[in-house]
Structures are given as C-alpha cells and as structure tokens.
Amino acid sequence: MKIKTAEYVGSWERNVDMPHRDKPEFAFIGRSNVGKSSLINMVAERNGLAKTSSTPGKTQTLNLFNINNELQICDLPGYGYAKVSKDKREGFGKMIAYYLRERPNLYCLFILLDLRIPPQKIDLDFINDCGDNAIPMVIVGTKADKLKPVEVEANAQIIKDALLETWEEVPPFIISSSETKQGHKEIWDVIKNAMKNG
Ligand SMILES: Nc1nc2c(ncn2[C@@H]2O[C@H](COP(=O)(O)OP(=O)(O)OP(=O)(O)O)[C@@H](O)[C@H]2O)c(=O)[nH]1
Ligand SMILES: [Mg+2]
Fold first, then answer.
1. Residue with CA closest to ligand 1 atom 27
2. How far is the CA of 73 from the centre of ligand 1 (A)?
3. Which of 93, 137, 143, 170 is most buried (most C-beta within 10 Å)?
C-alpha cells in the first residue's frame, strides 16, 4: 500500500471514550520497550509519528493514527512494566483489556516479543488470554538487527516452542527490525489481507 497520509488522531485513557469506530484498526502491543512505537513508525513510514523512548513506559494511553483515511493503527501502552505504580499498572491492564474486548473495529492485534529475550510468563499469559478471547493476532519478533541471523532463527524457535506448549500450532509469526525495516512487507500483507477479507 502506498502511504499518502499518516496522521496522529488522538489519545484516550478509556476505550469507551474512543471515537473513530468505522475504519479497520490494527493495534500493537507487547511489554514496555519491546519497540511498539518504533515499529508503528516503520510500518507508517514516518519517523516521529508515534513517540518512542529508550526509557520504558513511554506510551501510557490508547493512541490512534490514521493511514490514508483507509485504516487506523493503535499504539498501546506496554503491559507489565514494574516501574509504573501498581495502580497505574492495573489501570493499563484494564485499559488494554477493555480495548481488546470491546473495540468493534479491531481487525488484528500484533503482539511484539523482543527476539533477544526468551518469552516471559506475562507474554505467554497475555497471548493465551488473547487466544481465549478469539482476538485475531500475529506475533512479531522485534529488534532482529541486534542479533546475528542464526541467533534470530534460534531465538524465534525458542519463542515458537514456548507457544507450542499451549497452542496446537504457532500463530502467524513475523521477524522485524525498525532499524533495517525487516518485516515491513509481511506486516502490510497481514493488514491488506485482513482488510480484503473484512
Ligand atoms: N536496534 C533496534 N532498536 C529498537 C528497535 N525498535 C525499537 N528500538 C529501540 O528500543 C527502545 C524502545 O522503543 P519504543 O518503540 O519506544 O518501545 P515501546 O514498546 O513503544 O515502549 P513503551 O511505549 O515504553 O511501552 C528505543 O530506544 C528504540 O530506539 C529495533 O528494531 N532495533
Ligand atoms: Mg511506545
């Protein structure tokens, strides 16, 4: 898809307050610092569209971006970040859970896992919860540029093996790097297919 326009729409703290329910929406989630906002910028081909930071906990609201007036991307806060207060963490948990369960135009959720780190319990629990709630999802291994290709393969396999402990088959899996733009085509293929199939 040729990206003609990519615009910030707004930020909300509660799914119920979030308008713009008419266009297909694609959301990005994962632990803090995994690279959600960076990946959105890579996918939207706009540096600085979503705010990124080397300090975890940067994104704290539901942030919407409009692409070509055709589809929306939602940048979500990270789950399970220890340094935000317990209250806030629970708030994030609820914010994300309500969004995922109730957003009527959510077409697909990209769940990001840092390829350098073995999947944590919180990741596997989150993925299993999404499965239980029948949320269409794609797993994205991030920061591939920080590893050698053989390490990328080996670590991706570790993630897949962990998923296979509870899943009969691995959900769709994409390897990405916001630095090298690896995964750009694969992510857009998912978006285009989802839109085509309604
Ligand atoms: N080398 C490399 N660094 C990356 C990549 N993606 C993100 N980073 C870096 O990782 C850090 C976190 O990136 P963000 O995109 O802000 O991460 P996030 O998941 O949105 O984080 P929160 O909003 O805090 O939950 C930043 O310093 C990015 O520059 C990548 O593909 N390769
Ligand atoms: Mg972010």
1. 54
2. 17
3. 143
Query: Taking CB atoms and a 6 Å cutoff, what residues make up the pocket around ligand 1?
Result: 30, 32-38, 52-54, 56-59, 77-78, 142-143, 145-146, 177-179
Q: Which atom of ligand 1 is nearest to the CA of 178?
A: 31
Instruction: Give the chain's domains with CATH numbers.
Output: 6-197 (3.40.50.300)
Q: Which one-letter amino acid corresponds to residue 146?
A: K
- The pLDDT of 181-188, averaged and rounded, is 98
Residue 86 has a pLDDT of: 67
Q: Are β-strands 25-30 and 106-114 bridged in parallel, bridged antiparallel, or unpaired?
A: parallel
How many CA atoms lie less than 13 Å away from 96 in the CB half-sphere?
Answer: 25
Average pLDDT over residues 56-73: 91
Copy the structure tokens of residue 13. 């703290």
